[in-house]
């Protein structure tokens, strides 16, 4: 995993944080499937993900419409439903507009 | 680490992603120090952090002014300087306005 090379802002981000139950049967398969699906979406700019005690996934989108289309993707909705029901002890979705980007 | 209980949007976020060199001498000490410093800052709403191949830290702030004050905090600046010089192979800072928040 590398840091996403996103364009000059503004663009949009979905910040998804979750705490997973253990075991979370079927989670890895779905995660791998979504990883492959994501880059094919219109307006997808990149994503970053890491999990320790908490999992954080940030995906970046050209426009709010592109972001919404991903939110409404059938398989993505299905994954969220299963996640809510089975995999996640807790989770939060935040929709944000990235206004600045820089390196240190 | 728990998911941050942030208020109703809008509020602001710093999304910091980094790839660490190994070893990164002094990094843990500084990270622990900043962890303690963060909650004392004005307008601080919470933060979430995880590291696998990539490290993602998202901190949440009441206003853009509060976020900027943290960016300009002396110790934070010092940490960034050392990070750039010694700890990080690559890193990106993104400033974002959180516009929506919900659970699944």
Write a structural description.
The structure is a homodimer of 104-residue chains. By secondary structure, chain A is of the alpha+beta class. The first copy, chain A, has a single domain, classed as Alpha-Beta Plaits, CATH 3.30.70. Helices cover 32% and strands 38% of the residues of chain A. Chain A is built from 3 helices and 4 strands; from the N terminus they run βαββααβ. In chain A, strands 2-3-1-4 form a 4-stranded antiparallel beta sheet. The longest helix of chain A has 14 residues. The model of chain A has no long low-confidence stretch (mean pLDDT 96). At the A-B interface, strand 1, strand 2, strand 3, helix 3 and strand 4 of A face strand 1, strand 2, strand 3, helix 3 and strand 4 of B. Strand 4 of chain A pairs antiparallel with strand 4 of chain B, so a sheet runs across the interface.
Question: Which helices and strands occur, and which strands form pairs?
Answer:
The structure is a homodimer of 104-residue chains.
Chain A: E1 11-20, H1 27-37, E2 44-51, E3 55-61, H2 64-71, H3 74-87, E4 88-102
Antiparallel strand pairs in A: 1-3, 1-4, 2-3
Please name the defining characteristics of this protein.
Alpha-Beta Plaits, about 100 residues, homodimer, alpha+beta, 4 strands
**Biggest interface, and residues per chain?**
A-B, 41 and 41 residues
CATH secondary-structure class of chain A: Alpha Beta
Mean pLDDT of chain A: 96
Continuous helix count of chain A: 3
